[in-house]
Amino acid sequence: MKDLQNDESTRDISRAEEALLRLNSVLEVEDSPAPVDIFVQGTEQIVPIPREIAETLQKVLAIEVAGKSVRVVAEESEFTTQQAADYLNVSRPHVVKLIDEGSLPGYKVGSHRRVRLADLQNYKNERDTSQRRAVAELTALSEDLELY
């Protein structure tokens, strides 16, 4: 039996790949703040979009081509502790602990905790930077001890 969903996702990825290649070529050639014109097939219309949006679309297409999913979230969004845990790839109780100890800014709405997206991104960036620094230090130490 043929997997129709798998065939559809393969077609979507190849369409995204083609769109990414075309958008890359447009953005590489035009190094200006001018809008990028998108031709809408079937309507014969050209839609100008801001360059910043075209660059964001380029990133979205690259993620899609890699087979990953994309979710667009407003910067002002609030996350529940479970959503924050999913974003950070940790457990919900760990997020609650981070909020309670003040490592992650959060607030309560009634009896429920919430975390702003900007605070989550800041925490994640700081955590990732700290982890990279620790790995670099361990690598340097193991090289010094000729273990690496």
Automatic annotation (TrEMBL):
Helix-turn-helix domain span: 79-127
UniProt-listed SUPFAM superfamilies: Putative DNA-binding domain
GO molecular function terms listed in the Swiss-Prot or TrEMBL record: DNA binding
InterPro entries: DNA-bd_dom_put_sf, HTH_17, SinI_DNA-bd
A Pfam family: HTH_17
Membrane-crossing residue ranges in chain numbering: none
The name this protein goes by in its record: Helix-turn-helix domain-containing protein
